Amino acid sequence: PAAHRLEAMALAGRAYKQKRPGLCVMILASFDGFLRTGEFTNAVPEQFIEALNTMVMELGETKGVQRRGGSETYVCRDRRLVSLIKRHLKQAEAGKPMIGMSPAQFRVWFKKACQDLGLQRRGLLPYSLRRGGITAAITQGTPASTVVLRARWHNARVADVYVREGQAALASLV
Q1: CA 161: distance to chain centroid?
Q2: What is the pTM of this model?
Q3: Shortest CA distance to 54 belongs to which of 35, 34, 33?
């Protein structure tokens, strides 16, 4: 299911409260940048480059790169999130995952955080952050062509599936 923006923020807040700033930042970046789970759980400080008022994350060996070649990036334009990323990068240890734990440890943390926040009935998974970000962008009026580009999909058919599933899940919350 798609995570709602407030659920992503609650999870990030949980990480922050637990003194895990890198995890907090990457949860928010995953939602904002439509990052796949492996892309944000394995992210290291060296992947980030400050450019003007943005933060660019080189994504490395993504699914798209493996299929089509080239390279992929996430460009964060949200001023508040850029500021948080910059602040965390100053204290982050080179070569170490930004989230401060292994992907397996993150999955355990995520499940426990969802339980603690009363979200277990939603059945959220780490991938729900990507789905939620995509759904939020489309429901806020972002053109489908822009979402397809930001999500790094080869065609718009995939977007239709995500959007229909995400809108149905979000409608069930109301």
Answers
A1: 19
A2: 0.90
A3: 33
